[in-house]
Amino acid sequence: MRSELCALSYMPKCKQCTTDFPITDADKTFYAKIDVPKPTRCPQCRRVRRLSYRNEITLYPAICGLCKKSMISMYNPDGSYVVYCQDCWWGDGWDPTASGQTYDPSRSFFEQFSELMKKVPRISLINKEADNSEYCNFSWRNKNSYLLFTGGENDDVFYANRCWKCRSSIDCSNLYNCELCYEATDSANCYNCAWLEYSTGCSDCWLGYNLSGCSDCFGCVNLSNQKFHIFNTPVPEAEYRQRIAELKKDLPAAAQLFRAQKMKGVRKYANIIKSVNCSGDSIVGSKNCQSCFRVKDAEDCKYVCDTTLIKDSYDVDNDDHSELLYECIGNESNHNQQFIDICWFDRDIQYCSLCMSSKNLFGCVGMKNAEYCILNKKYSAEEYETLRQQIIVKMKQDGEYGEFFPSKFSPFGYNETNASLYYELKKEQAVAAGFTWQDNLPSTTGKETLKELPADISQVNEGITKEILACQSCGKNYKFIPQEVKLYKMLGVPLPPQCFRCRHVGRIHRRNGQTLYSRTCMKDGCKNSFETPYAPDRKEVVYCEECYQKEIY
After folding, report:
1. Can you name the residues that pair with 160 across neighbouring β-strands?
2. How many angstroms separate the Cα of 11 from the Cα of each of 20, 23, 24, 38?
3. How far is 414 from 55, CA to CA, in rounded Å?
4. What percentage of the chain has pLDDT greater than the value 90?
5. Where are the strands (E) in 439-507, listed by range?
6. Are 75 and 58 in contact (CB under 8 A)?
7. Which residue in 52, 100, 170, 271 could disulfide with 376, CB within 3.0 to 4.6 Å?
8. What CA dihedral angle connects 250, 205, 156 and 497, to 10 degrees?
9. What is the pTM of this model?
């Protein structure tokens, strides 16, 4: 169960955080295959830099730079970028080659690319084929959904991310084919469930961890194909109905008992299902994936997070249906890409952003159905390859080639991006580390009209949607929309006392971290070793796969 079977080659020092990190012989083989230098930053610093280019949840009211209509945008309207609404950006009313630049070998490539990014229009949101779902980002084919980020084919889903084919659900993360779910994470094929983690095929379950095929279970851990259990104890159906009605009247107390139940249950070294030779967490149906998190149907990958159907790739976040990628974020259906930000249906491109259905591009922005372009300027195939090689040689001399785009050139402040959700920094820390900061976030404080939420959801009416609340965690104001109040009442859950961003961060924190530790199985007499996201000083009892299966099943 070791995550790295290849011999360790050497341990360079990260030029960002100065910690040592491993580069194995297998890693060197991959870097040679795609002809890039070995990385100079550790895996975490590389990921933070990539995430500093991805803003999913910070949205602004803005005006389209072309048609002048009102729109919702992930870009601060006070910034220095040209932003078009989705209709205008995908339309034929502009030409990205009009901003084409001639490469200047006397200047930094990254500086020239940053200038191009500010000239070529950006798309306000990534929100394809939306039906009454205007406030969604990095999303596709969603209907009647609101503040849904990175998800597709959902209906009536609110305040969620990485949800696919879900219905009537709210405040969820990493779900597939679920309905009527609330505060559920990393689960699939569940119905009418709340506060569920790492569970499949469940219905009418509240406060559950690692449940499979269960129904009518409350506060349970590590159960399979069971019904009418409370805190892992079977009870008659009539008694079950009566007791959970009482437990739901004081959910904070019930949640505390559930946390104690989780601590009593053994943990498998990692949430890895139907996978071979994998390390990381929340991995399903994958093979030969090392240090990967929340991946499904992946093969031969390393340092990959939040992806499906990806092969032969390193250092990738939020990508689906792609192959042979390195240092990429926010892509779809691509082949052979390196150092890429939000590109779809492309092949053989490097250092590009927002390019669609194109091939053989280097340093381009906003290109569609294009080929053999550098800095948005068209060349013949021979001219393209000659100039591309010249640029790479110069970038290597400048220490640029092999690095993702510098964070200082990101169109977003650190606190707007996914980096801040997973790796929290204060402004001074972020600026000292080379990131920028956005001081004018779209939020207010001190305008609340209601100080205390009603305790009983059955007594709440739509008048609550006219009230302004203050988040109990960050103090920022937030409101409820009628659709979510309807769902809360249908599910029988209380109104949340936090804003949606704090609820989202809370779900992230409930997961295991993304650092792996070498440990030995805690079952008496077992000496199996493994890599696990459970740090040695944590109190959970962690078993190897074999001992866990014997204990649970």
Report:
1. 148
2. 6, 6, 9, 12
3. 9
4. 96
5. 469-470, 477-478
6. no
7. 100
8. 20
9. 0.94
Task: Scan for tokens 């390195």, then name that residue.
Answer: 326
CB 113 within 8 A of CB 125: no
Nearest-angstrom CA–CA distance, 407 and 520: 38
Average pLDDT over residues 81-93: 96
Question: From CA 188, how far away is CA 505, in angstroms rounded?
Answer: 21
Residue 107 domain flag: no
Give rounded-to-5 percent helix, strand, coil for the chain. 25, 35, 40
State whether 227 and 315 are in the same domain.
no
CA distance 492 to 460: 11
Is residue 176 assigned to a domain? yes
The two tokens of residue 490 are 């249908």
Cα–Cα distance, 166 to 161 (Å, whole number): 11
Write the pLDDT tens digit of every residue in 50-85.
999 999 999 999 999 999 999 999 999 999 999 999
Going through 58-154 in order, the beta strands assigned E by DSSP cover 60-63, 70-73, 83-84, 122-123, 127-128, 137-140, 146-152
Give the length of the chain.
553
295 within some domain: yes
Q: Are residues 334 and 233 in the same domain?
A: no
